[in-house]
Write a structure and sequence with these properties.
The structure holds 2 protein chains of 2 kinds. By secondary structure, chain A is α/β, with parallel strands linked by helices. Chain A has 7 helices and 10 strands. In chain A, the strands form 2 sheets. In chain A, strands 6-7-8-3-9-10 form a 6-stranded mixed β-sheet, sandwiched between helices. In chain A, strands 2-1-4-5 form a 4-stranded antiparallel β-sheet, with helices on one face. In chain A, strand 4 and strand 5 form a beta hairpin. In chain A, helix 2 crosses helix 3 and helix 4 runs parallel beside helix 5. By secondary structure, chain B is mainly α. In chain B, about 70% of the residues lie in helices and about 5% in strands. Chain B has 11 helices and 2 strands; from the N terminus they run ββααααααααααα. In chain B, helix 3 packs across helix 11 and helix 7 packs antiparallel against helix 9. The longest helix of chain B has about 40 residues. The chains are: A alpha/beta, B mainly alpha. At the A-B interface, strand 6, helix 2 and helix 4 of A face helix 8 and helix 9 of B.
Chain lengths: ~250, ~290
């Protein structure tokens, strides 16, 4: 497929390739993300989604190709990257509020601004009344909300999310997806959201990239131009969901 | 949710999650008393002290001198607090032992924890130093007593040396394995934010190793206390170990038992203070309150 060719993309992924020895995992992936866009990536299990994200976040070196943010090669020190991992990664020795503020500390956000942003974010994600608890005192879903809040709090150039809600039950997932959309709309962040849940992808994303099995390429791009808040039962929603499902099934 | 709010239950909503608390009420019956934990604890202790008293009081002639009754032990302990035993009172001897432990333990911890952290963090340091640690690790510190007396004479040094050895190894090993057990994702959190190696060590390694280090302190202090007693039993003119030897030489079970009780009490105080330190070092491991 051809990547969306708009000028001045916030994020440009060019020829992203990753090999482990002879095993080709990512095969020349190309796509762009516009500023303030929420892009979801779906693909069959084991298609290298996590490898892909690790390359995007520069946790793993790429074999070939690179990721450009505002035209410059992505660099965790220079750029503001944020990552929400699949597993809860709250630091156990910091309270909820200290965890949320942590990213801003590393980024050297001034004290005063840090406090203001922390307040805003805690209110947005509803962690205000648990701000002084330690992670071992809150539930799994709250741990994930800490990670999400921490990521949004740094005002990232690119926010990467690796199936953040994969391990939660349906009711909480719906709730947190709404929360995610609210955060994203309020803070105007650029988000790359990886999931294997098609309904989730259609619900949150502006655009969905469908990946192939290994070696992974971008198989198709599906634009989701439905009004928000979206309705799971809207015929158009159902149609897009069916379309994405077909794309994953037929390779 | 309202059907959950029956007697004995309460539910509240925190951050969109329902928290329910339940308290079960039980009636007191003969069976429940018999199975009550505290009741059984007390029964167990009563039987132990009765048996002790029985054997001490009724032992055949000639052997009764080998055991004092619980009450005699207690009064003996009281007497020892004020009488001169080999140059010092009970408290004097306790302080002598304690002082050695604190010096040796502090030295061991000050060297052991940084070394353990280094072994955990640096592959190179581990490759060089780990074999040495592994060679000395299985050797019980008490095996060094003779050598340490040959090296340092019979003053304070050999005892402090033994205590150092006894508490050094647990400090090193626990700090090292504490670093090794850190979840790799926690490093990723720092790295993806653009943190450097120093950020990783300061923000992840040090706090994440604290529980293991603290557990190492517990082991170290226990080892140190055993070490000092053993060293004093072998050669000393003061300390609680010496006090026991003195009692043995005088065929005085009362002061031997008195010394043993004191040893146990100090050990208990040391362990309790380590637990306090643990709470201070790792406040995040506190119990769940109000949730």
């Amino acid at each position: 497929m051809s990547p969306s060719e708009q000028p001045k993309a916030k994020i440009e992924v060019k020829n992203l390739t990753k090999k482990f020895g002879d095993l080709l995992v990512l095969d020349h992936i190309n796509f762009n993300i516009q500023k303030g866009e929420m892009v979801a990536i779906v693909g069959p299990t084991g298609c290298g989604k996590t490898t892909f994200l690790n390359c995007m976040s520069k946790l793993t070196d790429t074999t070939e190709g690179d990721i450009f943010i505002d035209g410059a090669p992505a660099d965790p020190v220079k750029h503001n990257l944020a990552f929400v991992f699949q597993e809860p990664t709250a630091l156990p020795w910091r309270t909820v509020a200290e965890n949320v503020v942590y990213g801003m500390e590393v980024k050297g956000v001034p004290e005063k601004e840090r406090k203001e942003r922390l307040d805003t974010i805690l209110n947005l994600v509803g962690l205000k009344d648990t701000a002084d608890l330690y992670p071992n005192q809150v539930s799994a879903s709250m741990m994930q909300r800490i990670a999400v809040a921490r990521a949004f709090a740094v005002n990232p150039d690119l926010l990467l999310m690796d199936e953040p809600y994969g391990q939660l039950d349906v009711k909480l997932r719906f709730y947190l997806e709404d929360e995610l959309v609210k955060l994203w709309q309020t803070l105007n962040s650029t988000v790359l959201f990886i999931t294997h849940n098609i309904e989730e992808a259609v619900y949150v994303a502006d655009r969905i990239l469908v990946l192939t099995p290994k070696p992974t390429k971008v198989r198709a791009e599906v634009i989701v131009d439905l009004p928000r808040p979206r309705d799971f039962l809207d015929p158009k929603f159902v149609e897009i969901r069916r379309q994405v499902t077909e794309l994953i099934r037929w390779w | 949710m309202s059907d959950m709010n029956q007697a004995g239950q309460s539910s509240q909503t925190v951050s969109n999650e329902v928290v329910v608390r339940t308290k079960a009420k039980r009636n007191i019956t003969f069976k429940s008393v018999i199975r009550d934990e505290r009741f059984l604890n007390v029964v167990s202790l009563i039987i132990f002290f009765s048996a002790w008293h029985y054997f001490a009081a009724t032992g055949p002639k000639g052997t009764s001198a080998a055991l004092a009754t619980p009450w005699d032990t207690l009064t003996g302990l009281y007497d020892m607090m004020f009488s001169n035993l080999g140059g010092s009172t009970l408290f004097g001897h306790t302080w002598d032992s304690l002082r050695r432990v604190l010096i040796g333990f502090t030295l061991a911890v000050c060297f052991g924890i940084p070394l353990g952290l280094l072994l955990g963090i640096s592959e190179t340091a581990s490759a060089i130093l780990r074999p040495l640690v592994d060679v000395f690790r299985p050797m019980p510190p008490l095996a060094w007593i003779s050598l340490s007396i040959l090296w340092f004479g019979i003053g304070e040094e050999p005892k402090i040396f033994i205590i150092f050895l006894a508490s050094f190894i647990p400090s090193v090993l626990n700090a090292c394995s504490g670093v090794r057990m850190i979840e790799p994702e926690l490093y990723d959190v720092v790295r993806v934010m653009g943190g450097n190696r120093w950020d990783e060590i300061r923000q992840v390694v040090l706090p994440a190793t604290m529980p293991a280090i603290s557990a190492g302190l517990q082991l170290s202090i226990t080892g140190a206390w055993m070490g000092v007693l053993a060293a004093e039993l072998v050669s000393s003119s003061s300390g609680l170990g010496y006090l026991i030897i003195l009692g043995m030489e005088n065929s005085d079970p009362q002061s031997v038992l008195g010394g043993m009780v004191m040893i146990a009490m100090v050990a208990w105080v040391l362990t309790a203070s380590m637990e306090k330190i643990d709470m201070m070092l790792c406040p995040w491991r506190r119990e769940i309150k109000g949730l």
